[in-house]
Specification:
The chain has about 150 residues and is an alpha+beta fold. The protein contains 4 helices and 8 strands. It has a 4-stranded mixed β-sheet with strand order 1-4-6-2, with helices on both faces. A 4-stranded antiparallel β-sheet has the order 5-3-7-8.
């Protein structure tokens, strides 16, 4: 298992290749990459993501470990960026490896749902007019957790 919380961009192709190369005994690898999307009004300049380093790392490791145990994963990877990110930038990715595709897919969805709702990140949209708005939690994100 690897969990990385970082400001730096990551090379998606290289990360996926490295993850797949180190996995043994798996019949499936699933990856998901999250992208900073533009605000609905189309007026966002950037997304600022704040975190507490030790707390965030520990929380993400716990979420990843829970997924590994629940689906008997061969391996899991979580990368989540923080700092100032422009629309279109990669914000996070997860990768899961399991003997069977169903487990790999479900574990990846679990990771995405819990990262969205339980990872200690705080997001602020920096708007083109100079305003900065904190991103509020959505009921739909909380509802997604009920299936787990």
């Amino acid at each position: 298992m690897q969990v990385r919380v970082q400001t730096e961009e990551f090379d998606l192709g290289q990360v996926c290749a490295d993850f797949s190369a180190r996995v043994t005994g798996a019949g499936a690898v699933v990856t998901f990459t999250g992208i900073v999307r533009e605000a609905e009004a189309g007026d966002m300049l950037a997304m600022e993501i704040e975190q507490y380093p030790g707390m965030t790392q520990k929380a993400l490791e716990k979420i990843a470990q829970d997924a590994i145990e629940r689906w008997s994963l061969a391996d899991a990877l979580v990368i989540h960026r923080h700092g100032r990110l422009a629309p279109g930038a990669q914000i996070m990715m997860v990768a899961t490896a399991a003997r069977h595709r169903k487990d790999a897919f479900e574990a990846a969805e679990y990771l995405m749902d819990f990262l969205k709702s339980r990872a200690p990140f705080w997001k602020k949209e920096i708007l083109k007019d100079g305003r900065a708005d904190w991103v509020a939690a959505k009921d739909s994100d909380e509802d997604a957790l009920t299936r787990w």
